[in-house]
Structure formats: structure tokens, C-alpha cells
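Hi W., the iron/sulfur cluster complex you wanted:
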Amino acid sequence: MIKRVEADTRDCYQCGNCSAGCPAAFTFDYPPNQVMRMLQVGLVDKVLDSTAVQLCVQCLTCTARCPRNIDVAGIFEDLKTIATAQEREVPEYVKTFNKAFMGAVARFGRLPELYMMGMFYLGTMNPKMAMGDAGLAIPMVTKGKMKLVPHKAKGADEVSRIYKKSMEKAKAREKAEAEALIEAAAQAGAAEGAKVSEKAATSEQVAAPEKAATSLGAPTPAPESEVAE
Ligand code: SF4
Ligand code: SF4
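Structure:
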């Protein structure tokens, strides 16, 4: 899967449109165009450990703005799936946010913002942060921009089922890929070991006749000083 993701970034020419339009880039450690560049040069591990992958909100702005028709949002989604399946270490608050976000979507089939943020604050156990954001939430609720009580979307159970199944599949795939890598490394190690012992055996075979000749009284080469005289 990661090979496909890397191939998808091939056409990126670093215009920066994706980063310019990304509403969440200010929370990322690397903006979207930098993530594309890192994938182009093979810094996959760094990307999978980044907060950018976890904090992308899948608004699709980057995909819509890319002049090279790269599905940047799709790449971020794939990266997040891989990172989650590999149980990558990311800061605790990032993990909590991602869990609250995906949990809310899987449960309601849409994103009830107030519920999701409530779950996030509960997970972080940080009342100071919650109090700080309350000033933003109150006007949004009073103006009807955010619903107080979350409602299930039509087909929410189906969304939940798809989410669970895709996570199970991703985990199984990552496990199989990791096992294949370990096996390949073990085989490479065994081949290397065989080469070393073959080399050792050959040098022993070469040394053996010389030793035998010396023990049978064969003339030993004269020292260089004597030859010169
Ligand atoms: S999909 Fe993600 S990376 Fe793309 S613009 Fe939206 S938040 Fe940013
Ligand atoms: S908008 Fe497209 S081409 Fe431009 S930097 Fe982003 S991914 Fe690359």
C-alpha cells in the first residue's frame, strides 16, 4: 500500500496550493506539500510518525486545488490507515483526537462536533483546554451552527461496519507486510552467513597445502635481505 502512496506523489511539482488551502495545516508538523516531498524522497517513516497524518480532517480542499490532479486527501487517509494499523507512536493528544473523531463518525455516520470535542476533552482530562475552547463553542451552538444533541445519520450502522472492517483489513495487511519483511531480512541474513562460511572454507583450503608443504621440509622463501645480497 505504501508503494502505491509513494507512486501517487510522483507528479507533485511543489506548487504549494494544497498547503495554502489546508485549513488544518497550522496544526501540522509538516504542511501537505512537504509531506508529498518527503514521500517522494522516501522519508516514509517520518511521515507515518507525523502529526499531520493524524490531524488531517479530510476536507478535500487539497485534492480540489491540486493542479496535478493528485488526490492529496486520499493519500493522507491512506497514510493514517497505515499509521493506525502499525500502531505508530504519536503524541497522546493526537491519538485521543483521532480516536474521538473516528469514534464519533463510526457511531453516528457523520461528525457531531460538540459530541466529538466532548469525547476529546474527556480523553485528555484537560479542563483548562476545554474551558479555553468553550468561548468558541457557545456562539456556535446559540447560532445553530453546532447541534447540542448528536443525531445518527441514515446508514450510520453501515458506516460503522465499513470502518471496523477496513481497520481489521488494514491491520491484517500491515501484519502480513511486516512478517514478509522480517522473513526477507532473515533469508538475506542466512545467505550472507552462508557466503561468509564459504569464504572461510576456501581460505582454509588454500592455506592447507602451504602448511603441508612446510611440514614436509619444502624450502621456505628466503628473507628479502638475503635475496638482495
Ligand atoms: S484533506 Fe487534510 S491535508 Fe487536505 S486540505 Fe483538508 S485537512 Fe488539509
Ligand atoms: S497542490 Fe499538488 S502539485 Fe501542488 S504541492 Fe500540493 S500535491 Fe504538489
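The chain has three domains: 1-90, 91-153, 166-201.

W.
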